[in-house]
Amino acid sequence: MPLTDSDNLVMDSIINRYPRSRSAIMPLLHFAQSKDGYVTPESIEVIAKKLNLESAEVSAVATFYTQYKRGPVGEYHVGVCTNTLCAIMGGDEIFESLKEHLGVENNGVTQDGKVSIEHIECNAACDYAPVVMANWEFYDNQSVESAKDLVDSMRQGNPIAPTRGPDKLPTWKENSALLAGINDGLANQGVSAGEPTLLGLKIAQSGNKKLTPELTKSYDQKDSFTLDGYRRNGGYKAIEKALNMSPDEVIQAVKDSGLRGRGGAGFPTGMKWGFIPQGDNKEHYFVVNADESEPGTCKDTPLMLANPHVLIEGIIIGSYAIRAKHAFIYIRGEVAHVIRRVQQAIEDAYKAGLLGKNILGKGFDLDLVLHVGAGAYICGEETALLDSLEGFRGQPRLRPPFPAIAGLYARPTVVNNVESVASVPAIINNGAQWFASLGTEKSKGFTLYSLSGHVKNPGQFEAPLGITLRELIDMAGGMRNGNKLKFWTPGGSSTPIFTDEHLDIPLDYEGVAAAGSMLGTKALQIFDETTSVVRAVLRWTEFYKHESCGKCTPCREGTWWLVQILKDLDAGKGEQADLEKLLDLCDNIAGRSFCALADGAASPIISSIKYFREEYLEHLRIGGSPFNPAASSLLTSDGVRV
Amino acid sequence: MSTQEITTETAVEMITITIDGFEVSVPKGTLVIRAAEKLGIQIPRFCDHPLLDPVGACRQCLVEIEVNGRKFPKPQASCTIPVEPGMIVNTQLTSAVADKAQQGVMELLLINHPLDCPVCDKGGECPLQNQAMSNGREESRFEGTKRTFEKPINISSQVLLDRERCILCARCTRFSEQIAGDPFITLNERGALQQVGIYEKEPFESYFSGNTVQICPVGALTGASYRFRARPFDLISTPSACEHCASGCDMRTDVRRGKTLRRLAGDDAAVNEEWNCDKGRWAFKYVNAKDRITTPLIRDESGQLREASWPEALALAAKGLKENRSAVLVGGRATLEDAYGYSKFARIALNTNDIDFRSRVTSKEEKNFLASHVVGTQINYKDLDRADHVLLLGFEAEEESPIVFLRLYKQVKKRELKITAVAPFASRGNKKLKAELVSTPAGNEASAISKISNLSNKSVILIGERLSESTGAISAAVALAANSGAKLAWIPRRAGERGALEAGALSNLLPGARPVSDNAARVDLQAAWGVSSLPSNPGLDSDEIIKEVEKGNIGALLVGGVDPLDISPDYQAIMEKAFIVSLEIRQSAVTQIADVVLPVAAVVEKSGTFINWESRARYFEAAVPDSLTRSDVRILSMLADEMESSINLPTVSSARDEFNSLGTWHKRESFTPVSVESTKIANGKANLCSWRLLLDSGSMQDGENNLAGTAHPSVAIISKSRADSLGVSNGDQIKISTPRGEIALACQIDSIDEESVWVPRNSINSKVIESLGITSGEVSVVRA
Predict the structure, then answer these.
(1) Of B104, B186, B191, which has the smallest distance from its Cβ to A588's Cβ?
(2) Among B425, B375, B433, B440, CA closest to B401
(3) Given Cys at both, which of A73, A378, A411, B79 links A116, Cβ 3.0 to 4.6 Å?
């Protein structure tokens, strides 16, 4: 990396964002990619020197995250989602035909250096499946033809614009600079939200009382993501109210509201805030988990795209409550336009005196830093996220101590999901009782349900907790082609699957748990009768293998083995005893590993064998899959969207 | 910082738990896995290491745990859970769940592990092999494809990595980061492809890298020198002690058919814990060097050395020593027993106090300091553990006493122990210690030390042997200790010096801290030795001895393990005038001028004792059985017999017993401070400073090229302003010269004191004493 003086200044300013310099490793690596296109040995050495680290330490971090490249990529780097849902809906066909069309393999670059291609994991846009990303900008609802057109336009030097993104597709290096936190000023371009994101809102606006748009209520306004737009919709009123309360009163209000974590585990948010020791004369940190990566989960990403200020307002209130003067948003690195919007929103909030020193003249100071990840699902695990934010490999930490006692930089820290934090302003504005009056007895309030897959109209639905899948599928216009529902995930791929037996289970924490799964992220991935459950499970398992951090044996070695067995089963190889072996292996992996990732890996396997053992055996009987993948794809066999 | 640690030792709270039905009480904070050990219950483990932070990564040690009637829903890693009152633990011995969990993890560890035990160095002493037998399934159910890597890769010239054998316990990377402060090896990639590795351009050149080989629970990390050499069950292991420095490491020496094949760090919680440095581990091939002296040699009429019988050689040596005024020079390799032999030999056989164990640049001030403040005192590693502040004077811990460095680093990591170093620049070791640098050009230490004011009676001042090179500096340190109440400790570089001090191999001291000048002490020793008199005149230092040789006043020298080039480039030529009896392991500069050469045993071939800097005795037996070589003291005893003035030390144990029976004298000589003389450097000149690097051209590192390959490169360190005025940048050659000669090295620009230039004292292309004739002082520096 030939460093100019101005590069040096930029690097210094990146380092200065953080209380401790090592945290700057990730943005500095993004910055290095903005210079060279990939992480060169030279840039590793420069970063090590800048941060007073050994080169080995920087290289250890760089090789952990998939967005850091070891060699040149194209000016336009195309990622085709081949995680289960997108793959089944047509992603596999798109990826295969793009490879053939470009004459390159996975991770290959065309000879002209214009386009490179990679299969990627779930990119939090499942309601737009099949999804293609280019330089981490969204290309929604792709077909084989549209994807070919896209790469052709790239090679001609005039790429088609992203679906939800800037007017013109930035280059790989330009977007790498964005990921390093350098605002390119394009945040105001593009739509607030796409059609699927607006689906629930529109249904509510048409008079459906089952839905309660609150976070999503302004999504259809074209400037919903701006400070003006947010204010026009009543934004930043809650902090005035909150800053007039004592911090403890704010915590109490959140406790009273019954708000529970929306990131998957459902831990009561107010209680989490209450765990932060007070009067300990230590720095406290408020960290937002915006690393939305659980397959099927696509709620926080559109929220931050359309309504980033509600998150910022929630952060201000939360930080005030736990007496933190420093807050971070850890956002996944694969959503460029969302990063742009949040970055711009933070800058606008600073300018408006909503962040920084003496907020609203109330004597409360808060700095908010957007920290951009680099491709690692495990960083959604809160302690891995903290290690990543501190500039280490994102591997989970030993607990205790829990983050509330020793989190970021070993200081008391709250880590909350985006949706949880974004729900706080409404609670403050409307009162805890209002929020608590929604939902069910132990699952209070409203939440975002993301419906994707084989329904007629996938999309986002904001509703009180406890709604059923039957109601949601109804609103989505039913199953596509009137097909039969086969299986679905209630809250992402890590939650045991359900079948059509479970259509009327109330989708709240207790209801789903009682039926043997978890509410998780309310990522409802719907698969119809055309779908091979073995194929689906194999693909999820490949995902967990790819995303296993490697720290502990059961997950690292177990996922490696599970994939091999499932590949054989999908190909109809093996015998009935292999199913028992598979289950026994899952027993040796789930609950034996360091964190919950491996539990998630075992969930689809165990639950699919529970409900679809016969289908596994059928594979073995006929020596292959009884399913035609084309039947479950949205694309016909010649690749044209139907 | 834990003030508790340094002020009081509170009573330890004990907690009682039940493991497999047996109660055990252990101190609060103890991990379940170690509480089980106390009962003799072995829970299988890989990532767990008592000296590394718990990580819980391998998941091999899963057990079932219940606390106050509440059972954890999942098996827990016993290496990460501290005991709690009322805890009930069921290990694999009593819990089917724990047993299955452990077997499951073991099966998973083995799916990607190659079945190459028959060709793996670890086979036979492999925790994976052993625990797969004790806690694994009999057969694997894995029928798939194993992960493979290119094998092996050199991560340094002495450490090889077989990645497919690695079970990713991260002991090696955690050691490097937590214990050595050298994160040159890290975990890279992720998931099933996670692997240990170095940064491609920077090898694993940590002074402590060998420990990772030792703690690797599989054969993933191996030492190049031992690879494919032996089977553990063919080796005879003997506890031993390290002869390379004054840290005092406990060691184990493994020998097959009379040849040392490897040495390992021993386990001594009070000293080296379970670590050692790479020099201690790998520098042992000098013993089998081609120039090893195996028979006595005498110089014949033609001036050539020829082989001789022991009687002939002893007779000639005795005659030469008897006919001349003789003096004794003994080097830092001597054991306590050997040094005692030299000390007693000088006083009885030669009737002289002209003896000096300090074969290096030294001073009378130091001699006075050693006799007044060091001999007979004790201070130890625990004092470092409890110190509130440690001051390093003339001492580069990582280079000159690496285990002292590890202990300091541990306290810096654990409780931010404050370290201050008086040195011309912050070395890598001192940077790791986050030491506050009192930037001081060589020769000006005294005034720098006298300005230090923030020590307390809980502080420790560590004085290296190089402080004697700066006049007045030791006096300033003594004054600082007196004023602050801080403890003083002297850390010589070589393993034998402290023992030689206690043995009285010094011109002002008799054995057991008896001052030569103390009449009563002499009489006491006369009685113990059964002699009617002992020389009472203070003897000469090594420099004075050589001067007297030059003047012709001393005609014979008894020399044991001294390289004159460690003191002055002129001394070899001067010494040649004397009749020289040399006791030596290998041919040396002294051999070239000796009249009688008597072969002696190396450490692995003999028994003996090293006294480390703490004054701790580290006794060892011969590791190589049936060696024909003899320890110096046995030869000295024969030589004294031949001279008809017996010292009666026919064996090492008799020497040790006799020395121990002497006890420690209660009175010390007084200390006379030496006034400060700041060094003035002429305009345009530079002030030379230097010290030895741990891995350098020292003769005891000979023959081990894999180790030598990890030595730090020889560079000259200069300041930015000097570089600018010379017009050089990093890596350009510069010449450092005195009227005697010059050294040419690549320069490295660092924030060194403006006046100073630093070069390694005894490294490739940088033999400071030989080339420049000085160790500090004025030199010219020019662009080469």
Answers:
(1) B104
(2) B433
(3) A73
With contacts defined as CB-CB under 8 Å, which chain B residues touch A57? 183, 186
Instruction: Report pLDDT digits (tens) over B396-441.
Output: 999 999 999 999 999 999 999 999 999 999 999 999 999 999 999 9
**Amino acid symbol at B154:** N
Residues in chain A within 8 Å Cβ distance of B136: none
Residue B349 CA, chain-centre distance (Å), reads: 33
Candidate from B145, B185, B194 with C-beta closest to A556 = B194
Nearest chain B residue to A585, by CA: B104
- Tell the burial category of B516 from Cβ atoms under 10 Å away from its Cβ (0-12, 13-18, 19+): buried
- Binary contact (B168, A60; C-beta < 8 A): no
ipTM, 2 decimals? 0.96
Amino acid at B499: G
Rounded to an integer, what distance in angstroms lies between the CA atom of residue A579 and that of residue A259?
Answer: 41
Q: CA-to-CA distance for B420 and B449, rounded, in angstroms?
A: 11
pLDDT of B358 above 80: yes
Rounded Cα distance between A623 and A442, Å, is: 48
Instruction: Give A403's contacts (C-beta < 8 A, 6+ positions apart).
Output: A382, A383, A386, A412, A413, A414, A415
- Best CA proximity match to B512, nearest among B667, B705, B319, B321: B667
Residue B88 exposed, middle or buried by CB count within 10 Å (0-12, 13-18, 19+)? middle
Written as six digits, the tokens of A366 are 């808060």
Do A173 and A35 form a contact (C-beta atoms < 8 A)?
A: yes
A640 has a pLDDT exceeding 70: no
| Residues B273-329 pLDDT 10s | 999 999 999 999 999 999 999 999 999 999 999 999 999 999 999 999 999 999 999
- A257 φ, ψ to 5°? -70, -25
Output DSSP code: residue B435: P
Whether the upstream peptide bond of residue A41 has omega within 30° of 0, thus cis, is no
Task: Name A146's Cβ contacts closer than 8 Å, sequence gap at least 6.
Answer: A139, A641
Task: Provide the β-strand partners of residue A134.
Answer: A78, A137
Say if CB B668 and CB B641 are below 8 A apart: no
How much of chain A exceeds pLDDT 70, in percent? 99
* Span A430-461, pLDDT tens digits: 999 999 999 999 999 999 999 999 999 999 99
Residue B8 has pLDDT above 70, yes or no: no
Contact A594 B168 (CB under 8 A): no
pLDDT of residue B677: 66
* Six-digit token string for B780: 């010219």
* Chain A residue with minimum CA distance to B45: A553
Of residues B732 and B683, more confidence is placed in: B732
Q: Which residues contact B541 (CB under 8 A, 6 or more apart)?
A: B356, B358, B362, B364, B367, B507
- Per-residue pLDDT tens over the stretch A118-154: 999 999 999 999 999 999 999 999 999 999 999 999 9
pTM: 0.96
Distance CA B30, CA B83 (A): 6
For residue B133, give the amino acid letter. M
**What is the mean pLDDT of the segment spanning B688-707?**
96
C-alpha to C-alpha distance for B494 and B485, rounded to whole angstroms: 28
Task: DSSP letter for A57, please.
Answer: H
Render A203-258 in DSSP notation, one character per residue: HHHTT-TT---STTTTTTSTTTTSHHHHHHTTTTSHHHHHHTS-HHHHHHHHHHHT
B72 CB within 8 Å of a chain A CB: no
Check residue B10 and give its pLDDT.
63
CB distance from B167 to chain A under 8 Å?
Answer: yes
Distance CA(B244)–CA(B241), nearest Å, equals 9
Residue B541 tokens read as 């230092």
